[in-house]
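Hey, weird one. I pasted the WD40-like Beta Propeller Repeat sequence into the form twice and got a warning about non-standard characters only the second time. First submission, copied straight from the form history:
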Amino acid sequence: MRDLFATLPDEPPSLPPGYLDTVLTRGRRAVRRRRIGVAAAWAVLLLLVAALLPAVHLPAQPAARSARPSLPDHVAGYSLLTSTVGRAPAGRAIALYGYGNGELFNMFQPLVVGADGDTYRRVDAMVERNRPSALLAPDGTRVLLGDDRGQTGDLLLVDLTTGERRSIPLGERVGVRLLAWSPDGGHVAYSAAPLRATDEFGTGNVVEAQVARTGTLRLLDVATGRSTPVPALRPAWTAAFAPDGRRLAVQVGQEAHLIDLTGREYARVPVPAGRELAAEAGWTPDGAFLATVPWLGGGPSTGETGHATFLWKVGDVQFVPLAAGTPPARVPDVVQLLGWRSAQSMVVATVDGAGRASLAEVRLDTRARRTLSRFATGHSCELGTQSCQLFDLHLATGLLADLTVRDAGRPRRGPWPTPLSVVVGVTLAGVAYLVWRRTGRVPGRGREPAA
């Protein structure tokens, strides 16, 4: 060791001017960069956790059932971040509806909005079956759907409180149109017919159009899954259950056939020309009248129901008496009759001159009209290029009598869709890596100070 030190020069080599200041400056800069890098890495990590947290599939926690069902005073707009019933069931619903547009991109969403809070969910089972027309149970806890892809061998019952699905076999493959759900939830009326393979097969409305022209009425016992055909009622156009749930009015041609749950017919009531029995809600709560609306499409002879089109056609509601009595006066400015709060109070969908849709309560005795809720129909659909349209709207009719209106809060849409969460997570992880590579290097490494 002594010999090694002996080889060192007596005087140390001279350093370049300002060398010490340069070293200190670079050292301070490296410390600052490391501190900034650590802070940035923590920030990216927090963002990553925030992005992935909605993707975590926690045990379903449906909204707690409130004492009285409610409807938000305005319904939230379109969002790609809305989760599904199957992934995160949110509890009973007050409304089921289709939402979106298809002008440039097919981005429609079948949605339910909560009856106990501002929860929104996509009905993923409907998407899987090409968004067929569906029925919402009167108590808002289930959705029943057929299949718009063509003939189907079953109906599908989706529980909105658990996300579970129950297949109800039909015994054969047929096209299906769902017509009405009884007030007690026990029975569903639907129309079914084999489909012909024509040039129109595979288009969006082939199932509904063909079954509307040729379908035979069937009565489904929801509990047992047993269907009872009523061959005499063909083609079944629209239907509405009586308030007691034990009788049913079914329109065939321009007549409403009144039957019981065994299919036995006991009366017929003429339906005025150019009009149809209001689907689902066409029997008044006092049992005295049938409510009719103008044809939305071309009428029973054409099969063009128009029931799955956007809400746009303003009409009226007129009443046909089932026995002696004076029917209520005509109710104008109605796009769709959705249900009843009492024998003197109906809930309808309306659309103003600018195309904005809303729900309103109309009193038959005083003609007073009160807006209950509004739908967002601005240009937020199809990536902000198109207006949002509303269609295939249903309310939980059994909840309307006790319905209140709540101030709409922040929409609770559930966990993000998994593909979106993965994309965001990978992107943030890449940013974190780049930040680490950029700030983790020591400045000047691999370079010698200038002589």
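That's the output from the first submission. The warning seems to come from a hidden character in my clipboard, not from the data itself. The helical segments are 2-6, 19-52, 124-128, 206-214, 418-440.
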